[in-house]
Write a structure and sequence with these properties.
Mean pLDDT is about 80; it is low at about 25-40. Helices cover about 30% and strands about 20% of the residues. The chain has helices at about 5-20, 25, 65-70, 90-95, 110-120, 160-170, 190-195, 195-200, 210-220, 235-240, 245-255, and strands at about 80, 100-105, 130, 145-150, 170-185, 205-210, 220-230, 255-265. Helix 1 runs parallel beside helix 5 (about 110-120). By secondary structure, it is of the alpha/beta class. It has a single domain, classed as 3-Layer(aba) Sandwich (Rossmann fold), CATH 3.40.50. Strands 1, 2, 3, 4, 5, 6, 7 and 8 form an 8-stranded mixed sheet that branches.
Length: about 280
């Protein structure tokens, strides 16, 4: 079993490579003989092109949802995007928050930060900033964000509890997040669960849907709602690189499901303080 740091290094290397490619190259990559499917990094992506503020140069096709569409961003808001990549969600958030707002993208891959900064600079987006750092320990002051968004990124982080805890820290009281991510119902086959490529592609890093929601609740969030949910189907020409024919059949006919979910949750306006004798301590 790889350590947390080894998993993070795998992700950093893979997404550094992706940052140096354009979307068309990523989307046309083949995954083995006998046909050409989109790589696992792209099979979950959705069409952003109809959203206001969309910039094709910043869209690498790496997401699994449209969190900014559901994020209830208002004019003047401070928005933080976790795993901001080339800046796609940040630029859509900027359209919603306007000139009076601020958008901060966090990514731990230097090549992605460089690409996003270039995309912002050539467009004159002075209220969009990109910072390099781990999203378990964001380089952001506490209680500063109105909204946090993220698109298929928590699966790339071994310690998901630490990320959710830090989201709570950076949000203002009453602030909220809208996060798209991958979750499971049932256990993944061993071949998918242990493979580094599938981890970097957000699949083997997925946790159970109920565990995911409980982590959010346990960290103090309220008004937790699944805003969108859709099944993810991994093509056979990808699966055959990791599973036997029998294992593929079992995966497709069994109880295991892989889903993209977009989850909304809110930080309470008032911290819940436990008083002696109340029974909550």
């Amino acid at each position: 079993m790889k350590t947390e740091q080894e998993l993070k290094d795998i992700v950093k290397q893979k997404y550094s490579e992706i940052a140096l490619q354009d979307k068309e190259t990523n989307m046309s990559s083949c995954c083995g003989a006998g046909g050409c499917s989109t790589e696992v990094y792209n099979i979950m992506s959705e069409d952003y092109s109809t959203l206001s503020g969309y910039n094709a140069d910043a869209d690498l096709g790496l997401g699994c949802g449209l969190p900014t569409q559901f994020a209830k961003i208002k004019t003047g808001d401070v928005v933080v995007d976790l795993g901001s990549g080339a800046g796609n969600d940040c630029f859509i958030a900027r359209h919603e928050t306007g000139e009076t707002g601020k958008v901060i993208g966090i990514d731990f891959t230097p090549a992605m930060i460089d690409k996003a900064r270039h995309n912002a600079e050539v467009r004159g987006f002075n209220n969009v900033e990109f910072r390099q750092g781990d999203i378990e320990h964001m380089p952001i002051t506490s209680n500063i964000a109105d909204v946090v968004v993220s698109n298929c990124v928590l699966n790339l982080v071994p310690n998901k509890n630490a990320v959710i805890k830090d989201i709570y820290r950076v949000l203002k009281p009453g602030g909220h997040f809208s996060i798209s991510d991958v979750v499971l119902v049932g256990a993944l086959p061993e071949g998918l669960r242990k493979d580094a490529e599938m981890y970097a592609g957000c699949v083997s890093g997925a946790i159970q849907k109920e565990v995911y929601l409980e982590l959010i609740h346990a960290n103090g969030f309220e008004n937790i709602v699944i805003q969108k949910e859709k099944p993810i189907v991994i093509p056979d020409d990808i699966l055959k690189n990791y599973l036997s024919v029998d294992e593929i059949t079992t995966l497709k006919t069994g109880a295991t499901g892989i889903f993209s979910v977009t989850v909304f949750a809110q930080k309470p306006l008032t911290e819940k303080v436990c008083t002696p004798g109340s029974g909550c301590c």
